[in-house]
Design brief:
By secondary structure, this protein is an alpha/beta fold. Helix content is about 35%, strand content about 20%. It has one domain: Ribokinase (UDP-N-acetylmuramoyl-L-alanine:D-glutamate ligase), CATH 3.40.1190.20.
């Protein structure tokens, strides 16, 4: 009889400490790169960006797959995380916060550099622009990845930012598949898609189970302005469950010939979109891994994602998450 998995989900990505700041549109004029995306910066550039702020930023655990993993854990899945922490206080705090909510910390790797940081600049329209210094996370090597990292895990959720290091992404996918995990990939940003379109299509053919994309990412993938329902169908045609998130307009989920419209959860007091897509993925995966219908899994995702935008940073405060989890449980 096959051994039962110890963990429902393992997240794989960069354990990034988020630095959170609300800024004006005028402030963004002096921030290099496009508004709304993610750009990698070095340590000196990060210091300069932080120095431009009017006050010290707030902090929160972050990282795309890490946010999804933490929220999936809060929704009742047994989770663990694979990523490389640094050698500073940010790394210590990060590990402690994950362990405190019940995410198994034993599969973190540890490096000799400062922990990864991401400066999330939130403008009045609730859009967030991210500038990331990967620090120790960037030193995670393909040689450090093995099948043992995924042993006992049912599902592996991978953040698209990993694809900036193609060899590492290949090693992670190979090990996860060899361990028998089902696999999801969040495309993460239009920059990731633009830099790796051919690689992504090759991975679809090799085998992915779920692919998450937002409006910009799905359009970048197909270089098309088709409607999102048609783009979801195109992505599903690659043999995956296609989850296309369209922000305040809800989502489309497609698999094979099936197409499901996920109605949005209307929020009147949104202040920060940081982490909303990661939370949506957590909600969806909490249903998908339990074997629920895609429409129900998408409904859970919409509620978790909508609550996230009501708070600064990617993590819903405990006093709000508890009632939300109880509400979601009534759907099932």
């Amino acid at each position: 009889m096959p051994e039962q998995p110890t963990y429902d989900l393992i997240g794989i990505g960069s354990p990034v400490m988020d630095l959170l700041a609300s800024v004006s549109d005028e402030h963004m004029i002096n921030v290099p790169g496009e508004k709304g995306g993610m750009v990698l910066v070095d340590a000196d550039e990060m210091k300069a960006l932080v120095a431009q702020l009017a006050s010290a930023p707030a902090t929160s655990t972050g990282g795309s797959a890490a946010n999804t993993t933490l929220n999936a854990n809060r929704l009742g899945l047994k989770t663990t995380f694979l990523g490389k922490l640094g050698n500073d206080d940010f790394a210590r705090i990060y590990r402690e916060r994950f362990a405190a909510v019940g995410v198994d910390p034993s599969r973190f790797k540890h490096g000799d550099h400062p922990n990864a940081q991401c400066l999330a600049l939130v403008t009045p329209d609730t859009e967030r622009t991210m500038r990331t210094c990967l620090g120790a996370a960037m030193t995670l090597s393909p040689d450090e990845i093995s099948v043992e990292d995924f042993r006992g895990c049912r599902h592996a959720h991978i953040e698209g930012y990993l694809v900036f290091n193609r060899d590492l992404a290949d090693a992670v996918l190979s090990a996860a598949r060899a361990a028998g995990c089902t696999v999801s990939l969040d495309l993460a940003s239009f920059e990731v898609v633009g830099a790796s379109r051919d690689w992504l299509f090759s991975q679809f053919k090799t085998g992915l189970d779920v692919v998450f994309a937002n409006e910009d990412e799905i359009k970048a993938l197909y270089e098309s302005d088709e409607s999102y329902d048609l783009l979801a169908r195109r992505l599903a045609g690659e043999g995956v469950v296609a989850a296309v998130k369209v922000g305040k307009d809800g989502a489309w989920i497609a698999e094979g010939d099936e197409l499901h419209r996920i109605e949005p959860v209307t929020i009147s007091d949104a202040i920060d979109t940081n982490g909303a897509g990661d939370s949506w993925a957590a909600g969806f995966l909490s249903g998908y891994i339990r074997g629920h219908h895609h429409s129900l899994s998408g409904k859970i995702g919409s509620h978790i994602g909508a609550e996230t935008v009501r708070h600064i940073g990617p993590i819903i405060p405990d006093d709000h998450f508890g009632p939300l989890a109880q509400k979601v449980a009534r759907f099932i």
